[in-house]
Every structure is written in C-alpha cells, then in structure tokens.
Amino acid sequence: MSGTMLTEKTIKLNAAFSTKEEAIRACGELLLQAGYIEPGYIDAMIQRDSISTTYVGNGVAVPHGTEAAKPLVKKTGLAVVQVPGGVDFGKGRIAKLLIAVAAIGNEHIDLLTNIAQICIDDAQLQKLLSARTAKEILDVVGTVEKR
Asked: Is the pTM of this model over 0.85?
C-alpha cells in the first residue's frame, strides 16, 4: 500500500458510532476530504454493504463502493477508522477496525491482498487496534507493504 494511498488525514482513531451506516459514512468522508472520491461514492458504499456485508472477519470491515460507482473514484486511496467499542455490522459481527477502499480499475486487487495480510496477522491487527497515533497505523501498514 503506497504511502500516498493512506495518509494521516485519512486515519481516524478512537471513533464511536451508533450504526454501521454512520461508520461507513465517516470512512467515506475521510476519502472525500482527501480528494479520493466524488460525494456520490459514499452512498455507493452504503449500498454495497446493504447488498452484501463488507465485514470480512476478525473484527475488520472493508467498506467500498459498488462496481457502478467506480467512475466516482478520482484516485486510489484508503481510510482507516479505529472503533475501540466496535460497531455492529449485523448478525453479531462487530467491527473494531474499518479499512475503506476507493480504487481505480483493478488497483483494488493489490490493496485487498495487503488488507487481507493485516487481517490474518493477529499481531499486526492488534497493533492497529491499539494504535494511539496515526503514525503508528502508517508504520504497521508500511511493514505489510514491504512484505
């Protein structure tokens, strides 16, 4: 994951949300403010999760837009939102870490591979969940990138 895809501006720590929609919208807002997406992509992220959950397991959700929303992506980017209290993604699936993806073309394939590496590595995931600064998040993501 390139450093330009994830920056301190697209990382939010210690967030709390009442609903998964609220959490997904917060992820989308980070992507929007960083210039990765057009505003309509956020609704497509909500729609995508309603079609099939974006919860991937191990306390992680990967919100992203629908295929039809791809034209609303200006450049590939990520947002990471840490939710220590968790947010329910339905059926008791509690996400404590949200990694939002906006990708041009097939660039998301490499992104999703790197995200999967984080999700299955309990030590790396724990570092993300316990990070107190955005730099700590960037450090973990950087170690995955170099594998």
From this structure: yes
Write the DSSP symbol of residue 19. S
- 49 DSSP assignment: H
Determine the straight-line distance between the first and last CA of the chain, rounded to whole angstroms: 11
Q: Is residue 109 part of a domain?
A: yes
As a whole number, mean pLDDT of residues 95-113 equals: 87
Amino acid at 26: A
pLDDT at residue 55 above 80? yes
Residue 78 phi/psi, 5-degree rounding, is -130, 155
Catalytic residues: 64
Per-residue pLDDT at 3: 46
User: For residue 83, what is the domain's CATH number?
Assistant: 3.40.930.10
Is 3 among the domain residues?
no
Angle between helices 20-33 and 40-51 (to 10 degrees): 140
CA 128, distance to chain mean position in Å, is: 12
| Maximum Cα–Cα distance across the chain | 36
Whether residue 1 is contained in a domain is answered as no
**Pairwise CA distance, residues 114 & 23, whole Å:** 22
